Amino acid sequence: MPKLKRLQDRYNTAEEKETYIENMFSSIDENYDFLNRVMSLGLDMGWRRRAIKAGKFSNQSAILDVATGTGDLLLSAQKAIPGVNIVGLDFCRPFLLKAKEKLDDKNGRHPVSFIEANGLKLPVKDETFDGVLTAFSLRNVASVDSLFSEFYRITKPGGKVVSLEMMKPNNSFQKLVFSIHFKRVVPALGNLLAKQAEAYNYLPLSIENFYTANELTTIISREGWRNVSYKNVMFGFVAIHVGEK
After folding, report:
1. Phi, psi (rounded to 5 degrees) for 172
2. 110 part of a folded domain
3. Which tens digit of pLDDT belongs to each residue from 29-41?
4. Which residue in 179, 240, 169, 177 sits closest to 209, CA to CA?
5. What is the pLDDT of residues 143-180, one digit of tens each?
6. What is the pTM of this model?
7. Pick from 89, 72, 71: which is nearest to 132 by CA?
8. Among residues 56, 28, 24, which one has the least CA distance to residue 243?
9. Is 4 domain-assigned?
10. How remote is the C-alpha of 90 from its chain's centroid?
11. Which of 102, 19, 11, 21 is nearest to 67 (CA)?
12. How many independent structural domains does the chain possess?
């Protein structure tokens, strides 16, 4: 089993974490999407579709996908909501370039715009979007509270936020599966198949040091979001949170 270096040996401050995350994801190779499918047992695209559905957005909605990565959530939204006006935002340029390749005009759907920016400092006016989406990003930001505060600021009254994220294991079954799959199998696959294996060694530690679904609900509500609820996915290893402004 790969030896996992502690998070405190990777970064100590919010600024160091941002630099660490940006450098790590900027080095991700062409196997990134493939490894996402393998690590999630081929289920992650289905989770994204469920997250889109949970938002109940209309075809006329303007939506911002924060930390869009390689564009999988954007693609799911385009397929699920014909005519949606969606913008993808990420601070990692290589990810944005890959997302643009996936969602070029050849797909025959409504064109997608992209913004290169930090999710904690959104270059967006107040109350611009009908909704905000984010998937598997919360563990990587310096402040989850600040992120949902920014989401709240740019969302129109009545709009929604939808988050898809992996949760900290909090029962004996989850902890057992986590110790085998995420702490052994995932790092081993990353070391074997990825040119930049650091991300797959970091992944289990980022989950282990994150929040439970209930804790995240409290944080989202604290930033002003109303009627915050969540649905467990894959025995609670993943959760879809939805909040209203």
Report:
1. -65, -40
2. yes
3. 788 888 889 889 8
4. 169
5. 999 999 999 999 999 999 999 999 999 999 999 999 99
6. 0.93
7. 89
8. 56
9. no
10. 11
11. 21
12. 1
At residue 69's C-alpha, the angle toward residues 153 and 19, to 5°, is 80
Separation CA 147–CA 160 (nearest Å): 14
227 inside domain? yes
Q: Which amino acid is at 21?
A: I
Exposure string of 12-25, with b = 16+ CB inside 10 Å and e = fewer, is: eeeeebbebbbebb
Residues in the chain: 245
Q: Could you tell me if residue 186 is inside a domain?
A: no
162: domain range? 13-169+211-244
Task: Please answer whether residues 137 and 66 qualify as being in contact, where contact means their C-beta atoms are separated by less than 8 angstroms.
Answer: yes
User: Which token pair is 68?
Assistant: 């869009």
Q: How far apart are CA 36 and CA 75, in angstroms?
A: 15
**Strands of the chain, DSSP E:** 62-66, 85-90, 113-116, 129-135, 155-166, 226-233, 238-244
Report d(CA 131, CA 155) in Å as an integer. 6
Query: Cβ–Cβ contacts within 10 Å for residue 142, how many?
Result: 17
